[in-house]
């Protein structure tokens, strides 16, 4: 149960980082 809470807490951060990196790639600044 605790692991599920940890995943729920971290998941939005992972999604934000992925979206941010995608934006950088689209802008032509990222790998």
From TrEMBL:
<protein>
    <submittedName>
        <fullName>Uncharacterized protein</fullName>
    </submittedName>
</protein>
